[in-house]
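To whoever is on call:

I kicked off a structure prediction for a single chain this morning and the downstream step that reads the tokens threw a length-mismatch warning. I double-checked the sequence; it's 66 residues and nothing unusual in it as far as I can see. Pasting both halves so you can look.
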Amino acid sequence: MHERGSIEVGKRADLVLIDATTGNLAPVSDAVAALVNRATAANIRAVFNNGALAHGDPLDVIPHRV
């Protein structure tokens, strides 16, 4: 099984989930510029390290909301 290259159940991933719906990031016409210039630690919803949730509330990380 390939462990890298896509985000799928069973694969390892280092991933940061960012809430872009907050006032400092929304609305955006340039998502990269918004993240670089306006994102703060408060925008981070979850951090995954090697596929495991390292930071964040597991109840906030629901597949249909990600």
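Update from on-call: the warning came from a stale cache, not from the record. Cleared it. Sanity check on the structure: Helices lie at 31-38.
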